[in-house]
Every structure is written in C-alpha cells, then in structure tokens.
C-alpha cells in the first residue's frame, strides 16, 4: 500500500509515459477541485502537476500522450491549437465522434460511440493535415448498444483445433 500526502480521488483513466502514470483527480470533494496527479512507478512516489495559469480541468478533459512529452518536474506548459481542415465535414459527415487516443505515428483516432452502417473510424494527422477514414466491416450484427474502441489492441487470431 502506497500512501499519498494529499488525499485524492481519480476521476478518469490516465496515461502512462516513461514509467509515470498521469491522471486527473478530485483533490477537494467539497469544491470538486481537480488536479493532474503523477505516480512514478519506479520510485513509487506521487507528485502533483500545477495547472497552467488560466487553465481549467473539465470533467470531460482527456490527457493526451503527444510525442511522449510531459515534464512534470518543471511545471512548464505549452499551448498548441490545432484546427481540423474545412474538408473534415466532407469526410466525417454528420458523425458524432469521440477521442480514442493517439496512434504510434501521432495521429488522433476518433470513433463513433454507437453503431452505424457503414462503420468508420477516423485518423487525423495534425502535422501532415491528412484524414484517413477506415471502414470496419461486418458490424451489421451490432444494431444496438454502444461501441467501445480500443487503440493498439492486438489479438492472436490463430485457429486452434483439438487433435
């Protein structure tokens, strides 16, 4: 059991960068004040990252591993505003998309939460300003419910037979 000097309650999943787990947490239940917590797996120590001046952490905020950069010791922030190109509407249409994560080649992965036909996931590169739309086939059986999309999932699809 590892104790932290400031009681807090994690609110959402975090990200792991270079052996450190970063996540958003409530540090004051009464006022619902949020902070970013860092847990270094190697040293088993907690630290807190100061918010950038004027920054707000919303319930829907998502921590993103963009090029593996996060310097919690210096508490330095940079601001980047990325705008989707005007052609985005031609590719995505009226689809309501949600952020899934960043791919290994720094593309944002977006996916619908509910079934549609055809079913697409979208990859967007801010650097190259390119959009890729990938159709996931054989989704017709899923007419109801919610879609859970995972990034970098690997499954062994070898066929095993009883001998």
Automatic annotation (TrEMBL):
Domain F-box associated beta-propeller type: 1-70, 71-154
Name the UniProt record assigns to this protein: F-box associated beta-propeller type 3 domain-containing protein
